[in-house]
Amino acid sequence: MDQQLKVFVTVVDKRNFSRAADELHMTQPAVSQYIKNLEESLGTKLLERNNRSVEMNKAGEIVYHHAIELLNLYSKMNYLLDDLSNRASGKLTIGASYTYGEYVLPHVIASIREKYPLITPAVTIGNSREIGDLVYSHQLDVGIIEGDYPARDMKVDSFTQDEMVIVAAPSHKNIDHGSTLEDEMWIVREEGSGTREATEKMWELLSIDPSQKMAFGSTQLIKESVEAGIGIGILSKWTIRKELKLGTLKILKLPNFKYTRTFSILMRSPFQTKVLEVFLNHVHSHHKA
């Protein structure tokens, strides 16, 4: 019946048996037979034919209206059945730089696992260059890094912005000008990390060159040190959500100054598996929420 309805709707839309046959890649006699069978099964004539065109009668208008609705429902039903029978499952190897991998990616994976429990992510955390190299060598299906990756045959999708902020202990005095920060003790990430690179870019934009620096190899250690009052630091807003809620850290706001960095999705293969498609959709949805 669905094929008969599809042929009927096409004939009505084209207002001609010959044009409908071309559209459906069928012969004109086959189209005529489908219409005849539909009319016989419904027990009523649906179309009025003349030499140049085909017009619906009253019964045809009723059938056409409901045929459109039925065909749409049928299409949706097939899509849902296909999605069910080809349910996304299997392993997905994901790479991410430290900030995204440790503070954002777990929430994305939790959302995926809730709806697609048969997907089993395997996560590698590293700096942006390491993740890019692993994706490039096909050791990872997808990577999320800070900035871009300089390889011509990689697909790079810059998908979200991350705001970097100056953090301090709650008791720290507020600031009204960037130059007052130069004499502070700065708690920073080690050389080579994306956060350290962002820190140095922010210093350059503020035209400061702090002489007092302490470098630590983890974001958590920086947060603990800043909370303890040892100094101030620059961190992603993603990494301090809990501390801001608890009031153990505060943001030192600079008038008319905001610094953001870009995060990108890296893929080597132009083809997406269903599992990878699910992951990418959830990543984008997470940042639209």
Descriptive notes:
By secondary structure, this protein is of the alpha/beta class. Helices cover 46% and strands 22% of the residues. The protein has eleven helices and eleven strands. The strands form three sheets. Strands 3, 4, 5, 6, 9, 10 and 11 form a seven-stranded mixed sheet that branches. The two termini are 42 Å apart.
In short:
The protein has helices at residues 2-14, 17-24, 28-42, 58-85, 98-103, 105-115, 128-136, 194-206, 219-227, 241-246, 274-288, and strands at 47-49, 54-56, 90-96, 119-125, 142-146, 155-168, 185-189, 212-216, 233-236, 250-252, 259-267. By secondary structure, it is of the alpha/beta class.
Keywords:
alpha/beta; 289 residues; elongated; 11 strands; single chain; seven-stranded mixed β-sheet
Shape from CA axes? elongated
- Tally of extended strands? 11
Mean pLDDT: 88
Q: Which percent range describes the beta-strand content?
A: 15-25%
- What is the first-to-last residue Cα distance? 42 Å
* Sheet of most strands: 7 strands, mixed
Question: What structural class results from the helix and strand content?
Answer: alpha/beta
Helix content: 40-55%
Poorly predicted sequence stretches spanning 5 or more consecutive residues = none
Counted by DSSP, the helix tally is 11
* Rg result: 30 Å
Helix-strand topology string: HHHEEHEHHEHEEEHEHEHEEH
